[in-house]
Amino acid sequence: xxxxxxxxxxxxxxxxxxxxxxxxxxxxxxxxxxxxxxxxxxxxxxxxxxxxxxxxxxxxxxxxxxxxxxxxxxxxxxxxxxxxxxxxxxxxxxxxxxxxxxxxxxxxxxxxxxxxxxxxxxxxxxxxxxxxxxxxxxxxxxxxxxxxxxxxxxxxxxxxxxxxxxxxxxxxxxxxxxxxxxxxxxxxxxxxxxxxxxxxxxxxxxxxxxxxxxxxxxxxxxxxxxxxxxxxxxxxxxxxxxxxxxxxxxxxxxxxxxxxxxxxxxxxxxxxxxxxxxxxxxxxxxxxxxxxxxxxxxxxxxxxxxxxxxxxxxxxxxxxxx
Amino acid sequence: xxxxxxxxxxxxxxxxxxxxxxxxxxxxxxxxxxxxxxxxxxxxxxxxxxxxxxxxxxxxxxxxxxxxxxxxxxxxxxxxxxxxxxxxxxxxxxxxxxxxxxxxxxxxxxxxxxxxxxxxxxxxxxxxxxxxxxxxxxxxxxxxxxxxxxxxxxxxxxxxxxxxxxxxxxxxxxxxxxxxxxxxxxxxxxxxxxxxxxxxxxxxxxxxxxxxxxxxxxxxxxxxxxxxxxxxxxxxxxxxxxxxxxxxxxxxxxxxxxxxxxxxxxxxxxxxxxxxxxxxxxxxxxxxxxxxxxxxxxxxxxxxxxxxxxxxxxxxxxxxxxxxxxxxxxx
Lengths: 322, 331
What we know:
The structure holds two protein chains of two kinds. The radius of gyration of chain A is 21 Å and the shape is globular. Chain A has one domain (41-317): Orthogonal Bundle (ABC transporter involved in vitamin B12 uptake, BtuC), CATH 1.10.3470. By secondary structure, chain A is mostly helical. Chain A has helices spanning 10-37, 45-70, 78-94, 99-123, 128-147, 157-164, 172-190, 192-202, 204-209, 214-240, 251-263, 273-292, 297-321, and strands at residues 166-167, 170-171. In chain B, strands 6, 7, 8, 9, 10, 11 and 13 form a seven-stranded mixed β-sheet that branches. In chain B, strand 10, helix 10 and strand 11 form a beta-alpha-beta unit. In chain B, 47% of the residues lie in helices and 17% in strands. At the A-B interface, helix 2, helix 12 and helix 13 of A face helix 3, strand 8, helix 8, helix 9 and helix 10 of B.
């Protein structure tokens, strides 16, 4: 009995290509579409800078979400953590605490929330959904306490410059987002802990049998995510020149969406930082492009949801193919 | 036997009188002797306790209730009607003389209104509907047309007329007050010959992210239409602050107005940038009027003559900003 391998059909080849690179293709198609609609505006330096500025904080928080999703978990408290950190920094500065001390304390708050999440999930074996939902609720309450339900403003100019200042006519948050993304990418790709995170996300039991300290790896992932989310929240407060308990709350949904979009970029279908940044770009390009075309914000929300569904479907098809 | 019968009749008469006395205290028209003994039982609720004005309202009502000797049950809903409505209905089930609704839209409290009507308990309200409603014995809010007229006047003065000017209107549909005034602003601008930037009211989806949403909307619009905005009318200060930031960052000369008179908006107006004006709504005065209505009802059962009142507001601009108490600093 002989077996012959059938030549790949063109239809199947295109399907496979879409499956492999669907998200990148979607980004290119979106850029092409909006450029075709507004060639005079869309790819100008001003507008590209505008898009980068608008997604810079989301990119940081999505980077944090990527770390926990690499480990196979997710963190619903990240946006709340970022809001609380921004609020803590603002409240301390308004109380007369020097800017860098206030920022360090706010970062410590983010780190602490991450550690609490990590302990609950890795050591007390709570599900990530339940644990981070609970911490999210408490953290939002804490943010209301810190801000007394109001918006804190009149922050020092030096602080506001972190979010509003420019270098070579490009806003500082764009550089900060790039630096953080590169650091996270390096850690995920080239360090022992990064490899441990990938291993735990791939198969926790096999990792444990291979000598990886799974609990410590998961704890560290949540701690890093909390810290990075705090950077995002502090930058958001600096960008707006104010802090409130719920500011940036949409970053939760968009960060998860960006990671899911990015999971379709690589062959394994796992969370990865490069893919997440493609996801963030899709969200930013779509929001900016639809605004430029004057599309109603309600329709924008529907379209965003549909694109996420498409990405998750692609991701699940890819997983099944494996 | 006759003496025992007389005794039973006397006990029955005393018991009947006592029961009559108890049962008349449910409304406001009870005899003075019974009201002196029994405090006025009030259920107060608000869904907006997490906003600065809502937080002020909770504190102010609690203090006024204490001063007036009310038996007050305060229910704070955190914008969660699934939690708040049953809590209020449960309190109604335990009996009350009156209900006070602060800043909770009539459309969201249908079950509370039904429960109150069934129990014959009047609802006094402030800023709970933008039009007369049978749900309330009184609802006092601010004059939305007046707000629009004042802000349009500010634009007219700053821009040298509205005809032919490109003005963006930013609203938020779930809030009935903002929805109404945004629609009135759009109509006023069209009537004055202005162009509505973007062709329609721009809608912010969530008040929590209002500032960043408005910032992105205006920034993207100005990127697509450099110099294409003369003004941005925004339904509330938080989003107006995002719009004014976008205008400033784009180097545009457009002017922005908001509504609420928050500290931050007043500070921006005083700084003399893009933020031109906001609106002060007299919430302490409105609360005093509603409390006076409730006190009259408690005293002799008198209900307010009208069930809806829309009071005048004050335009806050550079000329009077220093003298205004910000809405988030109300005592």
